[in-house]
Amino acid sequence: MNKFISIIAITGLLCAQAFSADKPNIIVIMADDLGYGDISCYGATALKTPNIDKLASEGQRFTSGYCSASTCTPTRYSFLTGTYAFREKGKGIAAPSSPLIIPPETFTLPDLLKNAGYQTAVIGKWHLGLGGKEGPDWNGDLKPGPREIGFDYNFLLPTTNDRVPQVYVENHRVLNLDPKDPLWVGKRKPSPDHPTGISHRDTLKMDWSHGHNSTIHNGISRIGFYTGGHAARFRDEDLTDKWVEKSIEWIEANKDQPFFLFFASHDLHVPRMPHERFQGKTPLGFRGDAIVELDWGVGELMKTLDRLNLAENTLVVFCSDNGPVMDDGYKDGALEKVGDHRAAGPYSGGKYSVYEGGTRTPFITRWKGRIKPGISDKLVCTIDLAASFASLTNTKLPDDACLDSMNVMPSLLGKTNTKGRESLIQQDNGNAGNYGFLVGDWKLQRHDKKRTRNLKVAKKLDNTPVPKFQLYDLSKDPAEKKNVIEQHPDVAQRLKKQLATLIEKGRSR
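Predicted structure:
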């Protein structure tokens, strides 16, 4: 009898091992506004990021890893839907009271993984809108939201922290909201005496430089207006601790089944206000301190996997939603203290631009025992994770979904005899009609409004006139300094035609 029981136990263990090999846990850590050169394993010397560096040393570090857009909302939209955000109007940066911009009927990456038997969660920054076409009901059920597009659980910062309101959303409700103190969010000043960054500028603990001068919370003025909900409001300094706490709690609760966690960091996004224990840790001001705080958070998640014996059954993807920006609305010293630090590494541009610095970011994959450590130059993008995870879990992707997501799973796993995607369309926020088009070493820029962001200046709103088309050979000119379109008209014509076809066709998969 004991022998029979032992055989059953061994058989069950082997089945469990086979199941876990086919369906590993998946954690996607998406940093916010993190540039290619912002972490030490990608060349930063002004600070150290040991936990992210360890992740890279144990997996694949990509030198041609991209997000699909140079601002947060369109990248997150494309990551979850597998479709370029420029294909749908209204997918630019979401306003404070924006409705959900991913229709509930859309087939999404979390839908895919739920079909594969995963528990799914998003914890951290959302910035994809909440509620129906009328926008969020902050005092009621905030739906549709993440749970209507495939997530079993969510714990969110609903927009970005420079936009009101400063509250957490757990599943469909604002956390700790007192019905006797209802939350109001609006575009206009609620009363003549309502304190703002303009009327009460001398009370601010972080001054604004442009645009972020409406309602004040925690000594920082924001975009938009809100009142009430005081018991629900959080302290900026505590955001990362809360994301880590809730993530560990959720991983522990779901450790016995396949799970997918989208950990959406906010650390580098303005207003940069790291916890007091990280303030002053770098010579780069609060922006550098926020990078160190991000690294700490990554380390805490990895320690949790080790403690629960999950590291060898978990695929970790580390990426960013767009490239870096210094002055993004607050006087936090990032520009003045940058010194020799090159946030975008060797690349030009950053957040808001289609230059390489806007979308080429750190991109790391680790799966202990399955991914051989190394450095890869394969072209991969966050938009590809949907099709890649479909392949990984042997789950069918509907023909009418994830229209631009490519299966690059072999590259993500570090297979040397494979190639990444053949081409990639980069976009800015989607409103200016600016595109970058990568094919091999060639990069075509198309600026429909013949203007682009000038990231060399302090203010992000400065625009620079540019030709509609520019061509660069990234193998010789990674910083996109020398436009060679006149020397290579045949290449330019070919790429123009390819880009136009991919845009007009409505899909690339």
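Summary: The chain is about 25% helix and 15% strand.
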